[in-house]
UniProtKB/TrEMBL annotation:
PANTHER family: PROSTAGLANDIN REDUCTASE 3, SHORT-CHAIN DEHYDROGENASE/REDUCTASE. This is NADP-dependent oxidoreductase. The lineage of its organism: Bacteria, Bacillati, Actinomycetota, Actinomycetes, Kitasatosporales. Signal peptide: none annotated. Residues 23-339 form the Enoyl reductase (ER) domain. Transmembrane segments: none annotated. GO terms for molecular function: oxidoreductase activity; zinc ion binding. PROSITE patterns: QOR_ZETA_CRYSTAL (PS01162). InterPro entries: ADH-like_C, ADH_N_2, ER, GroES-like_sf, NAD(P)-bd_dom_sf, Quin_OxRdtase/zeta-crystal_CS, Zn-ADH-like_protein. It holds the Pfam family ADH_N_2. It comes from Streptomyces populi.
Length: 344
């Protein structure tokens, strides 16, 4: 039985302009919770996603990003899973329905019912609906993995990358290589997620291109790039003829305290692109609307069969949210970062 919504709830707001990467500039603030109007519902959030794309939105979303900029005084937002606890007149949703929506970063959300998606039992854990389907979409729609391909995943310990290597293997890759900034994470990628080799991109390690040459002496066929910058440059040096690059992220820009999160420059050897017939394509989920539903179905099947895991960490309570975002930017977590709110 659903618990009626309270009259006051809490949300996370940007209270001051960040100097560098956001963190302490966030605060948990009490907010009056309106009664849902026609076609609206109140959702009690159970889980919401902490994701690096917030850096872009807080820094001033550049042209082409289909989400609004977050200004001082605004509440943050992002993917969430929750339970409908009140429904306005004419709403097709009812109390007790479990839905996904984009108004996370608050305990309760007033959402238009049309902006919610009801989740069934296709995934064994509701929190798994916060997994990123970008890797699956990019690998199936852009890269077209062929049996035996050698695949490189940059940023392999992040929310996208920690799934990408597993998905690549399930799609037929013969060898999977990853990159990460942490030797500890490199070990986990090998032992827990089955990466054949992992290169470390911190300043104390040998050159990234040199490490990749050792890890993939015959080159790579597919690159799933979540980072950009120097890692993309290095990946091009080991690309085989006809290699397919699928670009799904720009962490080198979003995790840099010296940028605004809206750019991630990389040096590209266009001569190499031409002579080796390499393709570089950016993946935008809105261009492939069928991929998300397909991902959820296959992800559920793979989870139940024990063929894939969902690497993630759960941060308990909304009070931990500012700290959780800062920890994400500092690279302290492995996999997807989720805030878990109490059920009542």
């Amino acid at each position: 039985m659903s618990t009626p919504p309270p009259s006051v709830t809490r949300e996370v707001r940007l209270v001051t302009e960040p100097k560098g990467l956001p963190g302490p500039e966030l605060a948990v603030v009490a907010q009056r919770l309106p009664v849902p109007g026609p076609g609206q519902v109140v959702v009690r959030n159970r889980y919401f996603l902490v994701f690096p794309g917030l850096r872009t939105l807080i820094g001033g979303a550049p042209e082409g990003v289909p989400l609004p900029t977050i200004h001082v005084g605004d509440a943050l937002f992002g993917p969430a899973v929750g339970e409908v606890v009140a429904a306005g007149p004419g709403s097709p949703l009812r109390p007790g329905d479990v839905v996904t929506h984009l108004l996370g970063w608050r305990e309760h959300a007033l959402v238009t019912a049309a902006d919610c998606t009801v989740v069934g039992d296709v995934l064994p854990d509701p929190a798994a609906h916060l997994s990123s389907g970008a890797a699956y979409g990019a690998l199936t729609r852009l890269a077209g993995i062929r049996p035996g391909d050698t695949v490189l995943v940059t940023g392999a310990a992040g929310g996208v990358g920690s799934l990408a290597g597993q998905v690549a293997r399930l799609l037929g890759a013969g060898r999977v290589i990853g990159s990460t900034r942490s030797p500890g994470k490199a070990e986990r990628l090998r032992t827990e997620l089955g990466y054949d080799s992992v290169v470390v991109s911190d300043v104390r390690s040998p050159s990234l291109a040199g490490q990749l040459g050792v890890a993939a002496p015959e080159g790579v066929d597919v690159v799933l790039d979540t980072v950009g910058g120097q890692q993309l440059t290095a990946a091009l040096e080991v690309a085989r003829h006809g290699a397919r690059f699928a670009l799904v992220g720009a962490l080198s820009g979003q995790l840099s305290p010296h940028r605004d999160g809206g750019s991630a420059p990389a040096e590209i050897d266009t001569f190499r692109l031409v002579t080796r017939g390499i393709s570089l394509r950016g993946y935008n989920g809105s261009d492939h609307p069928d991929a998300a539903e397909e991902w959820v179905g296959r992800f559920g099947d793979w989870l139940r069969a024990g063929e894939i895991t969902f690497p993630h960490v759960r941060i308990p309570g909304i009070e931990r949210v500012p700290e959780a975002l800062q920890e994400l930017f500092e690279g302290r977590h492995f996999g997807t970062v989720i805030v878990e709110l109490p059920p009542h």
